[in-house]
Write a structure and sequence with these properties.
Blueprint: H1 15-26, E1 33-38, H2 44-56, H3 71-78, E2 84-87, H4 96-105, E3 116-120, H5 128-139, E4 145-152, H6 159-162, E5 166-169, H7 175-184, H8 189-198, H9 203-210, H10 214-227, H11 233-247, H12 253-271, H13 296-314, H14 319-330
Helix pairs in contact: 4-5, 7-8, 8-9, 10-11, 10-12, 11-14, 12-13, 13-14
Length: 331
């Protein structure tokens, strides 16, 4: 988070979320616990911290925002505010040990601010025992404590947690805004537009993809798959090699599968004469290269293969075998 991203105004988009939060403060109807929920990478954590900064700002602005200059704001910027607690996944999940440590910290009053801000990030990763342990805190937090939870809409969150929080909905950002922000960081204009479309307005995911090998791996696999024929004996060797390369991505493999699935979705758009709906615009020659003569029904069947692969990965099946099965099915 850069130095200027500690105010509500600096958060991209999410006007509805900002309005709901400011209205709650203005009307003295601040909820004891909020759940910021929406797509990944659209500003939930950024707005959570900015909102917490506003709540403790000593000289809030007339337009309901943090001043950025007072003692509290300066401490937050330097990362030394004693009344900001951040709980985030250790490894793949938030564990019960972390919630027990949080409970101990909340047994003391805030050090100096009006509110102790407790940010619990990615609650969709929380293990059940940790989530159950958190329920009492959410239901009756000690005075002077403000809880802000963030969770991705695609992740599972216990209904008991959802029911105890006020939900603040987040949406995907405008693609042009995402592309402009990516372009300002030095990313090629066409690539920025493609990343904004591929991630459906998720600035966080777009920035991650721009800084990873996923796009190059996607291009390699697509090129190879389009060249091969199932009856070709050499295809087996190629598929095994591609599967090994994809499996080596480990935790990033699901992201790669999502990108490849989008390619087949684009082929459906082309098959139905909707080139304006294509999102993989960073791949040259998409509309004029020689494509396999798949019907829409055959392409839909291939989309199902991606869903099956994701289910297999969720069951901790062997990644290489999952990729081999998928790639052979795509030929």
């Amino acid at each position: 988070m850069t130095g200027d991203q500690f105010t509500i105004a600096s958060v991209l988009g999410q006007d509805k979320a900002k309005k709901l939060l400011r209205r709650a403060v203005q009307g003295s109807r601040l909820g004891h616990a909020y759940l910021f929920r929406g797509p990944a990478g659209v500003g939930k954590k950024t707005l959570a911290r900015a909102f917490g900064n506003y709540l403790n700002c000593q000289n809030p602005t007339a337009d309901q925002d943090a001043c950025g200059l007072c003692r509290s704001c300066r401490k937050l910027k330097s990362g030394n505010h004693p009344d900001l607690l951040l709980v985030e996944p250790e490894g793949a999940s938030i564990k019960i040990k972390q919630i027990r440590e949080l409970k101990h910290a909340l047994s003391f009053p805030p050090f100096e601010a009006a509110y102790r801000i407790i940010m619990i990030a990615d609650v969709h990763t929380m293990r059940r025992e940790a989530a159950n342990s958190l329920l009492k805190i959410i239901e009756e937090p000690p005075p002077g404590n403000q809880l802000i939870l963030t969770g991705d809409e695609a992740g599972e969150i216990l209904p008991t947690i959802i029911s105890r929080c006020q939900i603040i909905p987040f949406t995907g950002l405008d693609r042009e805004v995402v592309a402009e922000r990516l372009g300002s960081s030095g990313i090629d204009r066409d690539a920025a537009a493609a990343l904004a479309a591929i991630t459906d307005g998720s600035l966080g995911r777009a920035a991650m993809l721009a800084d990873s090998e996923l796009l190059l791996t996607r291009r390699l696999i697509i090129d190879k798959l389009m060249e091969m024929e199932q009856a070709d004996r050499a295809a087996a060797v190629t598929v095994f090699g591609l599967a090994e390369q994809a499996a080596a991505l480990a935790d990033r493999l699901p992201d790669l599968l999502d990108l490849l699935k989008l390619w087949f979705r684009d082929l459906i758009m082309l098959a139905n004469y909707l080139p304006e709906e294509i999102v993989n615009r960073d791949l040259p020659g998409l509309t004029d290269r020689d494509m396999p003569a798949w019907t829409t029904a055959e392409l839909l069947d291939r989309l199902e293969l991606f869903d099956r692969a994701r289910r297999q990965l969720a069951r901790n099946c062997n990644k290489s075998l999952v990729c081999e099965d998928l790639f052979f099915g795509l030929l």
